[in-house]
Write a structure and sequence with these properties.
Layout (H helix, E strand, L loop, with lengths): L4 H7 L5 H9 L6 E2 H8 L3 H13 L3 E6 L2 E6 L2 H13 L12 H12 L1 E3 L2 E3 H13 L3 E2 L5 E2 L1 H9 L4 H5 L7 E4 L6 E4 L1 H12 L3 E3 L6 E3 L1 H11 L3 H4 L2
Antiparallel strand pairs: 1-3, 2-3, 4-5, 6-7, 8-9, 10-11
Helix pairs in contact: 3-4
């Protein structure tokens, strides 16, 4: 194999609109059936199956079967981060010359406001949360991202066991370039635990079947009290 062949082969996995759209949809962190993904893109189930087989073989997705259903999801946080990073370098979808439909415009607006980036919060809400934690002295951004003692105390109050997270290979916190805000939001095991806790507390909820999320009234109140984020910033 010549130098560059393996990289070119791997890059080809995302050099197809259907496969790229599948990967973006799966950034919601959930497992989808092949049929659900086929309907979301508007392709035949057999076509979807062929594309998913390529993505699984390439290591971007993992699959499991339950009865006659085939479920796929992003392979791991590293694969999810790579997909999100590549999306950040791509041109925004709303720059296309084709006029989007009302539904497409509504979905795009919801994703820009708040969404899950695999297992953590992104979009306007994710960046606002990162900024607020930094302003409150919970997150340091002097040389990369790092939690402060004040931030660790807040995480403990949320019921997040940071010491347990330290034993994992995944970094506690790190910046993740937000492809809609073009600024970093908080990622890493801490951000994933926060997202899970916010769902469990009813502070955020999903909108339909997309990976878009919105902050609930109780969530806006809780985050406003803890981080000083204005209600108008979190409300869509």
């Amino acid at each position: 194999m010549r130098p560059g062949d393996s990289l070119a082969s791997f890059a080809a996995l995302l050099a197809d609109r259907t496969r790229a759209t599948f990967c973006l949809a799966l950034l919601d962190g959930r497992a989808w059936t092949a049929g659900e993904l086929a309907r979301s893109v508007g392709v035949a189930p057999s076509t979807a199956s062929e594309h998913l087989t390529m993505l699984v073989a390439g290591g971007l997705l993992t699959e499991e079967r339950q009865g006659r259903h085939r479920y796929v999801r992003i392979a791991d946080p590293r694969a999810a981060q790579m997909i999100e990073d590549i999306a950040g370098y791509a041109e925004p979808a709303d720059s296309a010359p084709i006029r989007p439909t009302f539904h497409a415009t509504t979905v795009a607006a919801a994703l820009r406001h708040g969404r899950t980036c695999y297992d953590h919060l992104a979009g306007h809400v994710g960046v606002a949360l990162t900024d607020a934690m930094t302003e409150r002295g919970m997150l340091a951004q002097t040389s990369g991202f790092g939690m402060t003692e004040q931030g660790l105390a807040w995480l403990a109050a949320l019921g997040i066991d940071v010491e347990a997270l330290r034993g994992a290979r995944r970094p506690l916190v790190r910046p993740c370039l937000d492809w809609t805000e073009r600024r970093p939001h908080l990622a890493g095991s801490v951000a994933a635990s926060m997202c899970t806790r916010f769902f469990d507390n009813g502070w955020i909820e999903r909108i339909g079947s997309d990976r878009a999320v919105r902050v609930t009234p109780i969530g806006r109140r809780a985050l406003g009290e803890a981080l000083g984020i204005p209600d108008s910033v979190l409300c869509r």
